[in-house]
């Protein structure tokens, strides 16, 4: 699986992904104070800043009431993780979901089987909705949680969406149509693509050539 499978070719966001981006970057949903008021956005820890080379990690550690200090992980590979297919369904842990296919769970210990459960879109006992508080009607809350899942599946990976695209041609195929398709694909991939070459590093790693 490549990033292209879950990302628009021009790197734009769908309506649901944009809603998720808004809640990820701009709306405080976690780390509630003593009054139950959320104090942090997702982006406060899982920082998305391509110019700084940050794709879901702020480069720091996070205690977060755990037994030990953990480094905040990046999120650039979420599109390639399918979760725990061998997990038991929640609540109740009764119905087995089938054999393990690939991947592992989310959270620091890999216990939560999928992003939908992690953000509380589904309401299992292994990821209570209180972890991420979202205000609004039930419909608005569900749309926001679905948007978070969609946005994180399309999270910037540092590669243009066209990376991983493959075209196969044979001698008896029309080259004109293939070239047209290739040209159109390239045009779409660069129309709104933030991964144009922006930085040219010199021998001095801390300094850019254009400075």
**Rg (C-alpha, Å):** 20 Å
Rounded to the nearest angstrom, the distance between the terminal CA atoms is: 38 Å
What is the strand content?
Answer: 5-15%
Structural class: alpha+beta
List the secondary-structure elements in sequence, H or E: HEEHEEEEHHH
Low-confidence stretches: 195-211
Number of domains: 1
Biggest β-sheet strands, sense, barrel: 2 strands, antiparallel
Instruction: Count up the helices.
Output: 5
Shape: elongated
Main sheet strand line-up: 1-2
Tell me the number of strands.
6
Helix content: 10-25%
Nearest-integer average pLDDT: 71
Structure, explained:
The chain has 5 helices and 6 strands, in the order αββαββββααα. The protein has 211 residues and is an alpha+beta fold. It has one domain. A two-stranded antiparallel ribbon has the order 1-2. The longest helix has 17 residues.
Task: State the main characteristics.
211 residues, alpha+beta, two-stranded antiparallel sheet, 6 strands, elongated
Give the structure's gist in a few sentences.
This protein has 211 residues and is α+β, with helices and mostly antiparallel strands.
Helix and strand topology:
Elements: H1 15-25, E1 30-32, E2 38-40, H2 42-45, E3 48-49, E4 54-55, E5 61-62, E6 70-71, H3 115-118, H4 138-153, H5 175-191
Antiparallel strand pairs: 1-2, 3-4, 5-6
Helix pairs in contact: 1-4
């Amino acid at each position: 699986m490549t990033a292209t499978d879950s990302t628009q070719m021009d790197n734009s966001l769908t309506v649901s992904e944009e809603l998720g981006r808004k809640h990820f970057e701009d709306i405080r949903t976690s780390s509630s104070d003593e009054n139950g008021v959320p104090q942090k956005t997702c982006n406060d820890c899982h920082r998305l800043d391509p110019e700084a080379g940050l794709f879901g990690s702020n480069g720091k550690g996070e205690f977060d009431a755990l037994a030990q200090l953990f480094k905040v992980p990046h999120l650039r590979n979420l599109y390639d993780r399918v979760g725990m297919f061998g997990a038991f369904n929640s609540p109740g842990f009764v119905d087995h979901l089938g054999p393990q296919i690939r991947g592992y769970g989310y959270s620091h210990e890999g216990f939560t089987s999928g992003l939908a459960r992690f953000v509380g879109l589904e309401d299992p006992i292994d990821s209570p909705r209180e972890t991420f508080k979202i205000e609004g009607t039930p419909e608005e809350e569900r749309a926001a949680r679905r948007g978070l899942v969609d946005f994180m599946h399309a999270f910037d990976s540092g590669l243009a969406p066209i990376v991983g695209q493959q075209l196969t041609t044979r001698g008896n195929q029309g080259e004109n149509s293939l070239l047209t398709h290739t040209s159109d694909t390239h045009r779409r991939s660069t129309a709104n693509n933030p991964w144009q070459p922006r930085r040219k590093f010199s021998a001095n790693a801390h300094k850019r050539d254009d400075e």
